[in-house]
Amino acid sequence: MSHTRIDYWQLPRTVRNRVADAIGAVSSAESASEGLNSAVAAVLRTATRRYFIKALPTEHRWVWTQAREAEVAPFVADVGAPLIARIVEDGWDVLLFDALHGHQADYAPDSIDLPHVARLVARIGEIPCPDIELRQAEQRLSAFTDEANLHYFGGNTLLHTDLNPANVIVGGSGARIVDWGWATRGADWLNPAYLVTWLIVAGHEPKEAEWWAEQVPAWQTAPVAGVTAFAAANAVMWATHGGTDPDPWTKQLVDASARWSSYRGMPPSAAGPRSA
User: Fold this and answer.
1) Which residues, other chains included, contact 100 with Cβ-Cβ below 8 Å and sequence gap of 6+?
2) The organism sits in which domain of life (predicted)?
């Protein structure tokens, strides 16, 4: 579900006053061009620093992702963006982060960013899973695969689950990842598995994409049948989300996930879809 993007200055004055209390007077705000899951997403500048703000109305169906991201933030500080404050004011739920320095990751087959991305995914898997409320991977995938496959996805590893290159920032010290609102608990090999489809979108053949996944130690012990079941479930999920007339952004994921599933021997017609 996307949300119509508004400018930072369209937030109620009461909210902007709370932001200023947290970070100082805002001199400029540049809206982000990527992603539409937040009503406000912008880089804010003060006299001394840059910050990133994301906000949703408190009645939005996905506002729970704001709370999830705020809860996860202290545990992922070494691989993410430091959380400065969460503000709930005048019908808005706001998160303020230090802005990361760097560029959005390039996932193209010849990109020099790929080793940084692989190391980042490995580091995510090394973070002890926090004892907070998180959705389970098997729960999230249950509508898109047979019940007999769900045991493959269970585990106690912290998963990001949205390895969109727009969420990965590569800078001088390596790669970091933002947007933890869909953090999940599950099998350790799912972190690199969630990367594969995005690599295919970027131009990799499925075999090449899996080679990069294999650079993450957790992938090397992944159950073959489990990987195939995940690839098929992922294809069904994107086909279900895309419906009969997917928008261009979704269609690239529908197509890429179907290619991976077919490569694993589960063409979309055999994989599903199932009803949610």
Assistant:
1) 52, 81, 169, 171, 176, 178
2) Bacteria
**What is the rounded CA–CA span in Å between residue 197 and residue 256?**
6
Partners of residue 86 on adjacent β-strands: 95
How far apart are the C-alpha atoms of 119 and 150, rounded to whole Å? 27
pLDDT greater than 50 at residue 275: no
Answer whether 0.85 is exceeded by the pTM: yes
Q: Count other C-beta atoms under 10 Å from residue 179's C-beta.
A: 23
Cα–Cα distance measured from residue 201 to residue 191, given in angstroms and rounded to the nearest whole number: 17
Query: Cα–Cα distance between 112 and 69 in angstroms, integer?
Result: 29
Helices (H), 84-205: 114-126, 137-141, 190-201
Handedness of CA 18, 22, 27, 32 (dihedral sign): negative
Class for domain 103-271, per CATH?
alpha beta
Fold of 8-98: Phosphorylase Kinase; domain 1 (3.30.200)
Is it true that the peptide bond before 273 is cis, omega within 30 degrees of 0? yes
**What are the domain boundaries of the chain?**
8-98, 103-271
- Cβ neighbours of residue 161 closer than 8 Å, sequence gap 6 or more: 137, 140, 182, 183, 184, 190, 194
Are the C-beta atoms of 150 and 141 separated by less than 8 Å?
yes
Which percentage of the chain shows pLDDT scores above 70?
95
